[in-house]
Amino acid sequence: MKRSRxxxxxxxxxxxxxxxxxxxxKLGISVIITNHKFLKDLGLxxxxxxxxxxxxxxxxxxxxANIAWGFIVDxxxxxxxxxxxxxxxxxxxxxxxxxxxxxxxMASRMILGxxxxxxxxxxxxxxxxxxxxxxxxxxxxxxxxGDYLGPAIxxxxxxxxxxxxxxEASFFLLAAFSFLINLPLFLFLTRDDPKQHxxxxxxxxxxxxxxxxxxxxxxxxxxxxxxxxxYWMIWLVMLVDSVLFYxxxxxxPTYLEKARHFSTALMSSWVSSSWILALITVLLVGYxxxxxxxxxxxxxxxxxxxxxxxxxxTSTNISSLAALMMGVGLAAVGGVLxxxxxxxVEYSSKETAGxxxxxxxxxxxVGGFTTAFMGYLVEVSGSFTAAILFLVFNAVxxxxxxFxxxxxxxxxxxxxxxxxxxxxxx
Length: 426
Known about the structure:
CATH superfamily: MFS general substrate transporter like domains
CATH class: Mainly Alpha
Number of strands: 0
CATH architecture: Up-down Bundle
Shape: globular
Strand content: under 5%
Number of domains: 1
CATH topology: Growth Hormone, Chain: A
Structural class: mainly alpha
Helix content: over 70%
Number of helices: 19
Radius of gyration: 21 Å
């Protein structure tokens, strides 16, 4: 009898689309704020700092809700949690499209933040439940590529919808994606645990359980995780990566249009290309991390590459080179996100994966204040240079944090060699 692959055919696709459309909901606003009618209707013309607070309001609720959802997902399971979150997304997208004032629109973004906070706990819990450790890199890639493919395809889709039906229509379209795609996928394909799924055969169940048991026998509870300094180094990495992610993703369209004087069409092409480059980076990093078992070292190097790229973007007079370097910076953020999530599921246990991911997702609050702070820096300085150098500083901090994990990484990789051999793919 051949081992079934339900974890890849039934679990990975819902996780992937969960992030594709979740990121469209979250980051579509970065494109919508370039629309003159939207800014005029909500009284935001010339209000750079106020525009930045649109993401801050979202992420303030997103960050705190991550902690709550982390406990909820460990209690009721990832499937029910994902369904609840998806319903909230769709409702708030409709609210956003019907908003007639800045206050109402901000309220819809805050509620959306509560709903989207299920993303990290749900996906890390499903991966912890369904995949053996030697597949963590590739398994995490299934949602992280959605994280970057969503904005890549969402940017042209939203721009097309803005031109065709106005900014309101773009929100109604995003609501339809949640109700018609994400919701059915979780309802009909997923289950919380391999033992609950009708399509899992005994060989796949044994393969998953043996790998998990061998990897996590030394973890006993959430308290043990909180005492592990390695978890807090990963938490710090996630924090600065959130600063970089939201700082670049939120302001990139505006930077290309205002600072580099790109047309809307050219801006759209560069933004989409940047997300695709990040997607490719995530896939490559996931593969290399699984093969080398040296994720911390790889992540530190990636952070330094991102810092150099951002410095180049601020110093060059060639607009196309600046756009490319900002894309490299975004790709570096994606690579480190892959690393941080891989390390998270390695150091947490199956029973605490939801809470561990929820606490890590709290770091997005700092990313939210980053968008407003960068807007303030642009407003007072008249350029994006200081704002981008602020991102460079964060990348260096992240690299240092990852380097603290490197000394013990080789020993950890050697200890897992027997597990890799035992769980080789058929």
